[in-house]
Design a protein that fits this description.
The protein has 200 residues and is of the alpha+beta class. It has a domain of 110 residues. It is 27% helix and 26% strand. A hairpin with a 4-residue loop joins strand 5 and strand 6.
């Protein structure tokens, strides 16, 4: 299957085009140094690199967003977020949340079944709060154990009443002494595999 048959460049750009934002597909030989299209014996895939801007200003911390769109051997379709790092100046206005909900709706309409990613640092909590589940139950249990210990040691929390990460509020992950993100980094937790099913 040719990679453009999985999803068109125009459909991808439309997802990122809202408000004053526009997406620019990086040409072949992009600065991230990977091919845009590829295939394996089990799936057809389209690997694409996107620069996302407001006017002339990039919204990204790194060179581009890297998404891979796959059609698996069983006919299901998956989106893989390999990299999406919003510049710190744009993180507090809900930009990732707006993009995620817009993307989820569009990908569902385009026939995709799941979105998956490797969450790093505070992305583990942020993506979980957006509905992404841990691919491995052991990862979820470990993160929750670490949060319980963080709450006890750093936030001097007594009477820990949370039953899951979904119950934790944003302010609970921060403290003047150390954020939960820094706590996880100190524990050597580099990345966690997560996914969300978007097709019933």
């Amino acid at each position: 299957m040719p990679c453009h048959a999985i999803i068109s460049d125009e459909a991808i750009k439309d997802i990122f085009a809202f408000g004053n934002f526009k997406a620019y597909i990086q040409p072949h030989g992009n600065p991230c140094g990977a091919e845009r299209c590829g295939a394996t014996h089990s799936q057809s895939s389209k690997s694409i690199f996107i620069d996302w801007k407001e006017g002339e200003q990039s919204l990204l911390q790194h060179c581009c967003i890297h998404n891979v769109y796959c059609k698996m051997h069983d006919g299901t379709k998956k989106v893989i977020y390999h990299r999406i790092t919003i510049h710190p100046n744009h993180r507090k206005n809900g930009l990732v949340k707006k993009l995620h909900y817009r993307s989820e709706k569009a990908y569902k309409e385009l026939g995709f079944d799941t979105i998956s990613l490797l969450a790093i640092k505070d992305g583990v909590i942020a993506w979980h709060r957006l509905g992404f589940a841990f691919d491995q139950i052991a990862d979820e249990q470990r993160i929750f154990r670490e949060f319980r210990q963080y709450y006890k040691d750093i936030k001097s929390g007594t009477g820990f009443e949370f039953k899951s990460l979904s119950e934790v509020q944003t302010h609970d992950f921060f403290d003047n002494q150390c954020s939960f993100t820094d706590w996880l980094a100190a524990k050597g937790i580099a990345s966690i595999s997560m996914s969300i099913r978007i097709k019933p």
